[in-house]
Write a structure and sequence with these properties.
globular, Jelly Rolls, DNA-binding, homodimer, 4-stranded antiparallel beta sheet, alpha+beta
DNA sequence: CGGAATCTTGAAAGTGTTCAAATCAAGTGG
DNA sequence: CCACTTGATTTGAACACTTTCAAGATTCCG
């Protein structure tokens, strides 16, 4: 099995014996995927929670104007899923796609409860991860309201200058909720 | 102790013996608070996770124009906290205030780990609650991008007609991220 | 009743979008 | 390695949505 980042990330938050790790391996499904491959498409049920070992994923949906609207990016050491679809096992409105060649590790929804029963530490680990993700979402709502789109753009590039180099402009525009044309204008201005 | 809603909510998601409940009680801090009382103010560390037994809370911050910007409401059976401040025990940028007389139950941050060690089911319960809250936050990002403010207003009043009756217009405007003046205009139009 | 908070109205200004077209960059097959 | 085709970015003008400001009307609460 080849998911060193996941194991060390788990061990940062909960104790895991070597035996636990061996047991865990029987529940993990690692995969290498190519740029533009999909892990989830609209209409499908989100069947797993995905950990990014290496590479970059995006989550997006098709908005009412027929355009791709990106809602999340996931880099190394992040979990990504449509948690509404995953929790309720109902069809998703989202797509999850690799924007670089990537190595991911999946925990399947139908095995998750059994895994958590055998390794209760994982219940704690994911409680911490979900609380962290929700905390970030709360802050995101704040920034979204508090700053104009121009300010949000400047904030984003100052916080994640390296990441901005990894993705095309139109994806950044989509994530920030503005048009590629307007982003282009903002870049020109400063 | 008087928190029937909390106990039945817990039992919907995890098993809890009567002994567990008795133990739990020693960690819960129930409180009655009056309309306009604060559970958290900007600059304070968020010291507890709050469950609403009865009544209604709001969470807001003071934006860069000096106005109150509401980010969350919490009704019966919802948990509310600034999870960034709660997790990291750092000063909050938010206020939490009752907008009706309310009965709440608090779990203090400094007792939470000890409580979860004694009742590991709670780790699972809060993993489910946080995952649910994060799932809702993901959908909220989608609605926020997908609909104009006018459409978001119409969607909100169609989804929560009873709740709209419980709060003043200016709070709804604040939550939806539009001015009271514009909301007034939308109401007039239909 | 009186004062404060809330809600409405209308005009002017700003922010961001749309549309159409031109330019630039990149991947592919020959 | 070039030529071609497609995808990505830029430009500018017209337009749409939402805010701001100032004032007046209304409602709530002690």
């Amino acid at each position: 099995m080849n998911c060193p980042n996941l194991i060390s990330h788990l061990r940062k938050h909960v104790p895991l014996s070597d035996g636990d790790v061996a047991l865990l391996y029987t529940y993990l499904r690692p995969a290498s995927i190519k740029k533009k491959d999909f892990l989830l498409k609209e209409g499908q049920v989100c069947k797993a929670n995905y950990f990014v070992e290496k590479g970059c994923l995006r989550m997006f949906y098709i908005n009412n104007k027929g355009m791709e609207q990106i809602t999340h990016f996931a880099l190394e050491n992040w979990w990504l899923a449509d948690y509404m679809s995953l929790s309720l096992q109902q069809p998703s409105q989202f797509f999850i796609q690799a924007i670089e060649d990537a190595t991911i590790v999946a925990i399947e929804a139908h095995q998750q409860d059994e895994l958590f029963r055998k390794l209760p530490q994982l219940e704690r680990y994911f409680r911490i991860m979900m609380q962290r993700a929700y905390a970030a979402a709360q802050m995101r709502v704040k920034y979204h309201h508090d700053y104009s789109k121009e300010e949000n753009y400047k904030l984003f590039i100052s916080l994640f200058p390296a990441f901005v180099q990894r993705i095309p402009q139109y994806m950044l525009a989509s994530y920030l909720g503005l048009t590629p044309e307007y982003l282009s204008e903002l870049r020109r201005k400063g």
